[in-house]
Design brief:
By secondary structure, the chain is α/β, with parallel strands linked by helices. Helices cover 47% and strands 10% of the residues. Helix 6 (164-174) links the parallel strand 5 (153-158) and strand 6 (182-184). Helix 8 (199-213) packs across helix 13 and helix 17 (476-486) packs parallel to helix 18.
């Protein structure tokens, strides 16, 4: 327990556990009250209303979950927790636990003694004691409730979330006879039980749920068989597609390819130049109206980056009582696990170990975390990310202002390297054009977005409904953007920025870009399996966007060196060096326009993006755009080979190489520094020391 006085707080006697639960479930998700024919919400609200009227009784009388702590914690601290509880519409126990003022297990033991119910540690519970099916166990991870048949009696074990402890106190006051049917446990104990006994179901859901529910929309192998046979089938299909342009009428095929190339470049220019109105001012939600927000990052070999990532996530302008931070790591990543163990204890941060099943990809890890997510909204970040502190609130404002079918909000990504070379400067310009101009333009045109792999914000229920991320697609972000459109949902963008690191070494850049190209090939192949069905579900705009943005990106990178070489050879009169079936016709204006359109669109969009970011000093790198396109072509042909040989291999991008401007958590913007005052009473000097603000 915690013993305290008005001058400060002493350490907890109970041992703290580094993977304590983050904040409670979303308001939409049922709590344990869903299993009982009683609604205590009205009484609870009436009691909270009475607490606003001056009365001689202590203000903690409205929060019965604190009764068990009277005489243990200082009255001033209990009153501060009660005030913050009312301000956030969250249990006062959650305030104390997630502010790190009391250990969850110690509190629940105290509450169990006060309510005269048992605590369940799960140390002697077998799988046979739980009547849930394997599929239902995955739902129990998010709800925090699991039934057990103990000594022949069906008992509900609850890991309290949100207002569960308060409602449980009120429930037992009215119905004391149900005490033998209820037990409490910590989220750590419950998740440990589910991870042990529900591991096969959770692993299967993370790796195969999409393929099982929507096989036509999954990049998983469609036919089981030996690995050599799958490679042979993919190789034959790829070879046929590569050779196809040389056998029909070459003039027709070259014209089609040129028009495809020009269409891709034209759409980039159109979307980047499309004028869209600035976002209208939105009301800043009071903390009491904020939902629980889950933030997930999948990590692998990120021991050097995880500390700064956690600092950046901790700097988010969001009540930690309603913030559910989840980091997912691979079972063989001992270095990252050790780095996490050295970090300061954060009760709102959970560490999950992804199942050791194939494929070993980021989307599989995200799917595993989704089973444990408690928020009604979920955001995804990468290890090197430094998001704006106000990004979660900005995403909520975008959801509030958008149409009901909007299911995803994409934030902008920006490179913040201080150490640069030509490659990283070109990467910076590419990101500036992509996320500040092109994607907002696509959203304004009502077209599907090929999402970036980070800073995506989703409605959690929608994400679960459509199968979440495809674990067999190595650009799960682009695939998910088009799958959202096929299910009738929209994606929008916001101007909030997440800062990232651009690769410096060519090998690191090549591995990352090859993975992207391979994933775009997978995405195009999956969604074009049934073109007519895609046209019906995503509409003409979605059909064209897939083929011009995703297909055009890959096709232009594959065709660029061949088209450039054949045209230069024809112009120089060297065509006699080639076989007759490869001899090109004399280049026409259309062919020269194709090359010019690709290079010009890349340079113009990059320049406009740099102008938007006021980073003109890096514009000189765009003079080598034709060379950069040759690098993209190398990555595309490498990706094509990997698509045949190892389509599900995730090539790791190494982070932490460049010196960065945002190496620490960003300083909150001035308008975000005016935060709660009275409601944040537990941050006062009399309750606990203030946390130092991170340096920019």
């Amino acid at each position: 327990m915690v013993v305290t006085d008005r001058a400060g707080l002493h350490d907890t006697v109970a041992e703290r556990r580094g993977d304590d639960e983050a904040e409670p479930s979303s308001p939409e998700r049922p709590t344990f009250l869903a299993f009982w024919p009683i609604d205590v919400g009205h009484d609870n609200r009436r009691m909270l209303d009475r607490s606003t009227v001056a009365a001689p009784r202590p203000e903690t009388h409205t929060v019965p979950e604190l009764d068990c702590l009277r005489g243990v914690l200082a009255p001033a601290l209990l009153q501060a927790a009660a005030r913050r509880s009312r301000a956030l519409q969250i249990g006062a126990d959650r305030v104390l636990i997630h502010q790190g003022l009391i250990d969850e297990q110690a509190y629940l033991h105290r509450l169990c003694g006060s309510l005269r119910i048992d605590f369940e540690p799960f140390d002697q519970v077998d799988r046979s004691d739980c009547p849930l099916s394997d599929a239902q166990l995955t739902a129990a991870a998010a709800t925090g409730i699991v039934p057990l048949r103990l000594n022949g009696v069906l008992t509900w074990v609850i890991a309290p979330q949100r207002l569960a402890c308060r409602r449980l106190c009120l429930l037992l006051e009215k119905f004391p006879a149900i005490r033998p049917r209820l037990r409490l446990t910590t989220s750590v104990a419950l998740e440990g039980f589910l991870a042990r006994h529900g591991a096969p179901a959770l692993a299967d859901a993370a790796s195969s749920d999409l393929h099982r529910r929507f096989p036509i929309l999954s990049a998983a192998p469609r036919h089981a068989g030996p690995l050599w046979r799958q490679r042979l089938q993919r190789g034959v299909c790829v070879a046929a597609l590569v050779m196809l342009p040389f056998f029909p009428d070459r003039e027709i095929t070259s014209t089609i390819l040129a028009l495809w190339f020009i269409g891709f470049a034209g759409l980039r220019l159109l979307a980047s130049l499309w004028r869209h109105p600035p976002p209208s001012p939105t009301r800043r939600r009071p903390d009491a109206e904020l939902p629980v927000y889950t933030v997930v990052a999948a990590l692998y070999r990120e021991a050097d980056s995880v500390g700064s990532l956690v600092e950046a996530l901790d700097a988010l302008d969001y009540p930690r009582e309603k913030l559910d931070l989840i980091l997912v790591i691979e079972p063989d990543d001992l270095a990252t696990r050790a780095a996490l163990a050295r970090l300061r204890h954060r009760p709102h941060l959970r560490i999950l170990i992804a199942p050791a099943v194939a494929p070993k990809t980021k989307p599989k890890a995200l799917n595993y975390a989704l089973a444990f997510a408690r928020g009604s909204f979920i955001a995804v970040f990468d290890a090197e990310d430094r998001p704006d502190p106000g990004q979660l609130r900005a995403a909520l404002a975008a959801f509030d202002a958008a149409s009901p079918e909007t299911a995803c909000v994409q934030a902008s990504l920006c490179i913040d390297n201080l150490t640069h070379n030509w490659l990283s400067r070109t990467f910076l310009a590419e990101y500036a054009g992509q996320f500040d101009l092109f994607l907002p333009g696509l959203a304004a045109l009502g077209l599907p977005l090929p999402l970036g792999g980070t800073s995506n914000h989703f409605r959690t229920d929608v994400l679960r409904t459509l199968g979440a991320w495809d674990p067999h697609n190595v650009t799960e972000d682009a695939d998910l953007g088009f799958r959202l459109a096929r299910f009738g949902h929209r994606s929008v963008t916001i101007r909030s920025t997440t800062y990232e690191e651009a690769p410096l070494a060519f090998g690191n850049w090549l591995r990352q870009r090859s993975r992207w190209m391979k994933g775009w090939m997978q995405t195009w192949e999956v969604h074009m399996r049934r073109p007519l069905r895609l046209w019906r579900e995503a509409g003409p705009g979605g059909f064209l966007a897939l083929n011009l943005v995703v297909g055009g990106n890959v096709l232009s990178a594959l065709a660029y060196p061949l088209l450039l070489a054949l045209m230069l050879m024809a112009a120089a009169g060297w065509t006699g060096l080639l076989p007759s079936w490869l001899t090109p016709d004399r280049p026409t204006a259309l062919h020269w326009l194709t090359i010019a359109a690709g290079v010009t669109s890349t340079a113009v969009v990059g320049l406009l993006g740099l102008g938007r970011r006021r980073q003109w000093r890096h514009a000189g790198a765009l003079a080598l755009t034709p060379v950069y396109w040759l690098c993209l072509s190398l990555a595309a042909w490498r990706a094509l080979a990997h698509y045949v040989w190892c389509p599900y291999r995730w090539e790791k991008t190494q982070h932490g190489i460049a010196r960065r401007a945002h190496s620490a958590a960003p300083e909150p913007a001035p308008d975000q520094q005016h935060r709660r005052h009275d409601a944040d009473a537990t941050d006062s000097a009399s309750d606990r020391p203030r946390r130092p603000r991170a340096c920019a």
